[in-house]
Amino acid sequence: MIEIGRLCIKTAGRDAGLRCVIVDILDNKFVLIDGETRRRKCNILHLEPLKDVIKIKKNASHDEIKKEFEKLGLKARDTKPKQKTQKPVKQKKKEKPAEGQKKKKEAKKKPVKKEESGESGIDEKISAEEKKDKPKKPGRKAKK
Amino acid sequence: MPQPYKRSRSLRRVHIRVPGGKTKLHYRKRKPGKAHCSSCGAVLKGVLRERPNKMSSIPKTKKRPERPYAGSLCSKCMRLLIIGKARSL
């Protein structure tokens, strides 16, 4: 009774009562099934074979079985493969450098504005140094 | 004498340690009975036993197994039923 293309009803687990086709015989105990159920390995004891046999190749793909099931008036189950996402870890790493970059950009922008106002190069350097010193001092005071 | 409803055993008793260090008797309502298979009468495994207010806050998948007829039939009776249906086709 157990052969490739045999229609079965699954009798155990969350897919119990749903129809499936044997796609491959793995062992004297286990077969690969697909159809209304999930595409998965299954024990022969958990299957109840029916009279009908479908013509399919060994290891037929899910799309082929889906077409065959549509001819019988059954809907094959589509499983959505899970996408591996490690976003939360990456985001944290990205956020920290992003904040640092923002600070650097702000620091760069300020001297540029001053360049426009004061044209001479020496003045810019002096002004930049002064500005560097200025923010540090109030910061220390604030900490105290 | 304690109040009459505390003298009957309709409420279950819980010994609770109070912040002051003493143990006190608290009275709580009993849990509902265990679920049984409707065809063979066996006790159903994996079916939660809680008061309705707690049951409403628990997800459905934690209250019973995830298979057809779960919570009313045991796995053996469910399998026999499905096999019977398949053979009658």
Mind telling me the C-alpha Rg of chain A? 34 Å
How many structural domains of chain A?
2
Separation, N- and C-terminal Cα atoms of chain B:
68 Å
Assembly type of the chains comes to heterodimer
Give me the side-by-side strand order of the main sheet of chain A: 4-3-2-1-5
Number of domains of chain B: 2
CATH class of the largest domain in chain A: Mainly Beta
Low-pLDDT stretches of chain B: none
> Tell me about the biggest sheet of chain B?
2 strands, antiparallel
Rg of chain B, rounded, reads 20 Å
User: From the helix content, strand content and strand pairing of chain A, which structural class follows?
Assistant: alpha+beta
What is the H-and-E element order of chain A? EEEEEHHH
Strand order of the largest sheet of chain B: 1-2
The percent range for helix content of chain B is 10-25%
Strand content of chain A: 15-25%
Beta-strand content of chain B: 15-25%
Q: What would the principal axes of the Cα set say about the shape of chain B?
A: elongated
Kindly report the average pLDDT value of chain A. 77
In which range does the helix fraction of chain A lie? 40-55%
Number of helical regions of chain A:
3
